[in-house]
Amino acid sequence: MLTKRIIPCLDIKNGRTVKGVNFVDLRDAGDPVELAKQYALKGADELVFLDISATLEGRKTRIEMVLKVAEQVNIPFTVGGGISSIADVDVLLQSGADKVSINSSAVKRPELINELANKFGSQCVVVAIDAKNINGNWMVHLAGGTIPTELNLFDWAKEVEQRGAGEILFTSMDNDGTKDGFANEALAKLSEELNIPIIASGGAGTIQHFIDTFKIGKSDAALAASVFHFGEIPILDLKEALKKENIPVRL
Amino acid sequence: MKLVIINYGAGNIKSIQFAFKRLGVDAVLSNNTEEIKAADKVIFPGVGEAKSAMLMLKSTGLDTLIPNLTQPVLGICLGMQLMCKSSEEGNTKGLGIFNVDVKRFSNQVKVPQMGWNTISELKSPLFKGIKEDEFMYLVHSFYAESCNEQIATTNYELHYASALQKDNFYGVQFHPEKSSVAGEQILKNFLEL
């Protein structure tokens, strides 16, 4: 049976992890490669690197990081952040990334999704969507939730699927950082209306939140950062708990 | 040990090359007929779309070379699918090494299947030391039907062949290079065939 995936997300700037990481057995908590190796050993199913480097130098560092991760880590990983062209994607995939995640660039030029899916296959195209619930309407936002758009989450998600995305990473800006649980109602609706996998993001605080997002939110995967980085929820404990709830996991 | 990964422009070959490097073997990327023929072991990778991948094989003559290879050959993901008789993807005629058709999952399930699923009914030296129901990483929208040449099966919507073998030809739908320690064991087993 296909299992539900647990995905730690690493925020990267200029080749270093930026948000605090508190891993006891790490020699260098700022080294994304070291951290990725630890996560692979500790039961993570996949990894996401969100690279916020904006400079050219930062972009070069990113390629070096991707090469090192691909060299040393034996589970799949996605790279996101500022990707806006076929050339950007080509170099990342050539360097060993399994998937890329696009966000603002897809909203600005939706044809990019078709182009990437046709050239590289849907399986490596993840479209990340950030949305906020405004008076009962889930509206898509850009730039980490700071810029509102006219797009409705569900309309945009359907368009993204039709254009060839292989997967959607949905972050609820209302839940992100709250540790109050995932946006399960919207997640369940996405899963019901779409036929591609949905990754839940934003709001993880407890093991129960993961149970809820798989059972109530019908998510295919759950992504989180701080609860994993600070060891608040060890991935193996989380998976044991999910298994007890009859949620299929890789253990 | 001379290991060649067939480089015909399809897919994430870097990950496969790195996985063998972790096992201490330097794999050569090549689309050169003589170099491929002379290899001890051949990897036939592939990610992407069947029809265009098949066209790339034809343009370099690899479509006639591959079925005539005599050393162990391992097709991975789309590579395995192209070794089959045909694929529903773009109504593509395959290399016909495995006597089985490749079909698309229906919309009863999410497509692509993406993530970790189990492999069962294992029967091949390729799976030496691998336990029944071991987890492998898969990402695919098309599958080979259950058949006589299957050496592993997986369930997603239905029971399908997730690995195939005929003579010196092996094919796996999953990505051993991305399937943690167990995946690396399968690559190691292939090297030892």
From TrEMBL, chain A:
Record-level GO cellular component terms: cytoplasm
Protein name as it appears in the record: Imidazole glycerol phosphate synthase subunit HisF
A biological process from GO: L-histidine biosynthetic process
Pathway: Amino-acid biosynthesis; L-histidine biosynthesis; L-histidine from 5-phospho-alpha-D-ribose 1-diphosphate: step 5/9
Assigned keywords, A-Z: Amino-acid biosynthesis, Cytoplasm, Histidine biosynthesis, Lyase
Organism annotation: Aurantibacter aestuarii
Enzyme Commission code(s) on record: 4.3.2.10
Subunit field text: Heterodimer of HisH and HisF.
Gene3D superfamilies with a match to the protein in the record: Aldolase class I
Family under the similarity heading: Belongs to the HisA/HisF family.
High-level lineage: Bacteria, Pseudomonadati, Bacteroidota, Flavobacteriia, Flavobacteriales
Active site: 11, 130
Keyword Disulfide bond set for record: no
InterPro entries, alphabetized: Aldolase_TIM (IPR013785), His_biosynth (IPR006062), HisF (IPR004651), IGPS_HisA/HisF (IPR050064), RibuloseP-bd_barrel (IPR011060)
Function: IGPS catalyzes the conversion of PRFAR and glutamine to IGP, AICAR and glutamate. The HisF subunit catalyzes the cyclization activity that produces IGP and AICAR from PRFAR using the ammonia provided by the HisH subunit.
Superkingdom: Bacteria
Subcellular location: Cytoplasm
Keyword NAD: no
Molecular function per GO: imidazoleglycerol-phosphate synthase activity; lyase activity
One protein family per Pfam: His_biosynth
SUPFAM superfamilies: Ribulose-phoshate binding barrel
Catalyzed reactions: 5-[(5-phospho-1-deoxy-D-ribulos-1-ylimino)methylamino]-1-(5-phospho-beta-D-ribosyl)imidazole-4-carboxamide + L-glutamine = D-erythro-1-(imidazol-4-yl)glycerol 3-phosphate + 5-amino-1-(5-phospho-beta-D-ribosyl)imidazole-4-carboxamide + L-glutamate + H(+)
UniProtKB/TrEMBL annotation, chain B:
Active site: 77, 175, 177
UniProt keyword Transmembrane, yes or no: no
Entry's Gene Ontology BP terms: L-histidine biosynthetic process
Record field: catalytic activity: L-glutamine + H2O = L-glutamate + NH4(+); 5-[(5-phospho-1-deoxy-D-ribulos-1-ylimino)methylamino]-1-(5-phospho-beta-D-ribosyl)imidazole-4-carboxamide + L-glutamine = D-erythro-1-(imidazol-4-yl)glycerol 3-phosphate + 5-amino-1-(5-phospho-beta-D-ribosyl)imidazole-4-carboxamide + L-glutamate + H(+)
Entry's Gene Ontology cellular component terms: cytoplasm
Keyword entries, A-Z: Amino-acid biosynthesis, Cytoplasm, Glutamine amidotransferase, Histidine biosynthesis, Hydrolase, Lyase
Major subcellular location class: cytoplasm
Pathway connected to this protein: Amino-acid biosynthesis; L-histidine biosynthesis; L-histidine from 5-phospho-alpha-D-ribose 1-diphosphate: step 5/9
Location relative to the cell: Cytoplasm
CDD domains: GATase1_IGP_Synthase (cd01748)
Superkingdom classification of source: Bacteria
Residue span, Glutamine amidotransferase domain: 4-191
E.C. numbers: 4.3.2.10, 3.5.1.2
TM stretches of this protein: none
Gene Ontology molecular function, alphabetical: glutaminase activity; imidazoleglycerol-phosphate synthase activity; lyase activity
Keyword Ribonucleoprotein listed: no
Matching InterPro entries: Class_I_gatase-like, GATASE, Imidazole-glycPsynth_HisH
Pfam families: GATase (PF00117)
Protein role: IGPS catalyzes the conversion of PRFAR and glutamine to IGP, AICAR and glutamate. The HisH subunit catalyzes the hydrolysis of glutamine to glutamate and ammonia as part of the synthesis of IGP and AICAR. The resulting ammonia molecule is channeled to the active site of HisF.
Subunit structure, interactors included: Heterodimer of HisH and HisF.
Name used for this protein in its record: Imidazole glycerol phosphate synthase subunit HisH
